[in-house]
């Protein structure tokens, strides 16, 4: 029972995080928006192009928010 409560609390906290902060730092570039070199030793940013994952913004949409947007789009299309 405690596990169920903990899971529910974690889910609730995640939903709250998605609602208040829909954007999280991009994992690929750690929020810098720059494309990093592949090796750890040469960790200089590659200037041209920027990060491909976040397209140079340094932010990524949270998983929960993406799902929310998806369902909101379906509902908007259904209730037109
Ligand atoms: Zn990025």
Defining traits:
alpha+beta; binds zinc ion; flat; 80 residues; 12% strand; 4 strands
Your description of this structure?
The protein has helices at residues 2-20, 63-78, and strands spanning 23-25, 35-36, 45-46, 59-61. By secondary structure, it is an alpha+beta fold. The chain has one domain. It has a two-stranded antiparallel sheet. The protein has a two-stranded antiparallel sheet with strand order 2-3. Strand 2 (35-36) and strand 3 form a beta hairpin. It is flat, with a radius of gyration of 18 Å. The structure holds zinc ion.
Total of helices: 2
Question: What is the strand tally?
Answer: 4
Distance from N terminus to C terminus (CA atoms, Å) equals 42 Å
The bound ligands are: zinc ion
Unreliable residue stretches: none
Share of helical residues: 40-55%
Number of domains: 1
Largest sheet: 2 strands, antiparallel
Question: Helix/strand/pairing class, anyone?
Answer: alpha+beta
């Amino acid at each position: 029972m405690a596990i169920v409560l903990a899971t529910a609390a974690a889910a609730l906290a995640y939903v709250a995080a998605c609602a208040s902060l829909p954007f999280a730092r991009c994992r690929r570039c750690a929020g810098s928006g720059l494309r990093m070199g592949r090796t750890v030793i040469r960790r200089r940013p590659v200037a041209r192009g920027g990060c491909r994952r976040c397209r140079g913004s340094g932010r990524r949409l949270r998983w929960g928010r993406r799902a929310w947007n998806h369902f909101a789009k379906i509902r908007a299309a259904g209730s037109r």
